[in-house]
Design brief:
Largest sheet: 5 strands, mixed
CATH architecture of the largest domain: 3-Layer(aba) Sandwich
CATH class of the largest domain: Alpha Beta
Radius of gyration: 21 Å
Helix content: 40-55%
Number of domains: 2
Number of helices: 9
Distance between the termini: 57 Å
Shape: elongated
Order of helices and strands: HHHHHHHEEHEHEE
Strand order of the largest sheet: 2-1-3-4-5
CATH topology of the largest domain: Cytidine Deaminase, domain 2
Length: 240
């Protein structure tokens, strides 16, 4: 069934004459095709993503509002569906388009990680961790399980916590590594505050995992903390 304007999207009062918004859309698409992604701003990239979901409306004001509320293209795409729905004009179809983009970015980044040994493609690991976790509004604790060649066996989110805390159980971490026959781990978690600086609790938790894993022949290569403002590596900070 064809979409009826206003059926899947809330009425924003942004309707324009067809020549106006169709002309704008084609100009924006042409600029993207001819000059590439760097030629469009964050809000314009959001427009390009949302064109299919909102076919009969000028959505430039909506795209600008998303950037104003969330801060950037990445933060808007990664925002929780409930928060996106608070924006007038963001119906199910529009939210789904943004979530598709988020999933595609994560899938592409994960593909880069799986191509080569983890330790020889470290920037790909960082990019993947930031893509999947940096903009989450709750803390997640992720484990990358590696084999003896330092290739990825599995990538799992072990725990999801609150905005500033995730319970982590070292023995459960090591138990899962043994189940997968992993010989090394990379620990990853996010700081929703944006600041990736390790806390005292982060340092203590990491050392506990190292202490349980080492006697069983499982190495902890690093603990990476990601946030909107960047990332921190325990190995780089000489904390591991």
């Amino acid at each position: 069934m064809a979409d009826i304007p206003g059926e899947n999207e809330q009425d924003t009062g942004l309707s324009e004459s067809a020549p106006h918004y169709h002309g704008h859309r084609e100009r924006l698409r042409s600029r993207f095709r001819e000059a590439g992604a760097d030629a469009v701003s964050d809000y314009e990239l959001l427009e390009l993503v949302l064109f299919r979901a909102i076919p009969q409306r000028d959505i430039k004001p909506l795209a600008k509002e998303l950037i104003a509320k969330f801060g950037s293209f990445g933060e808007a795409v990664a925002a929780a569906p409930k928060r996106l729905a608070e924006i007038k004009g963001m119906g199910d179809a529009a939210i789904t388009e943004l979530k598709i983009v988020q999933a595609a970015a994560s899938r592409l980044a994960r593909g880069e990680v799986k191509k080569r040994t983890i330790l020889s493609s470290w920037q790909s690991v960082i990019d993947y961790c930031r893509t999947t976790m940096a903009y989450e509004d709750k803390e997640q604790f992720r484990l990358l399980f590696l084999d003896k060649r330092n290739q990825l066996i599995a990538d799992e989110v072990q725990q999801v916590g609150t905005v500033d805390h995730t319970p982590v159980y070292p023995r459960e971490v090591v138990k899962r590594a043994l189940e997968l026959s992993a010989t090394a781990l990379i620990l990853v978690h996010n700081h929703p505050s944006g600041d990736p600086t390790p806390s005292r609790a982060d340092i203590q938790m990491t050392q506990s995992i190292v202490n349980v894993a080492k006697p069983l022949g499982i190495a902890v290569h690093d603990h990476i903390i990601v946030g909107k403002e960047g990332h921190a590596s325990f190995k780089g900070l000489k904390l591991i």
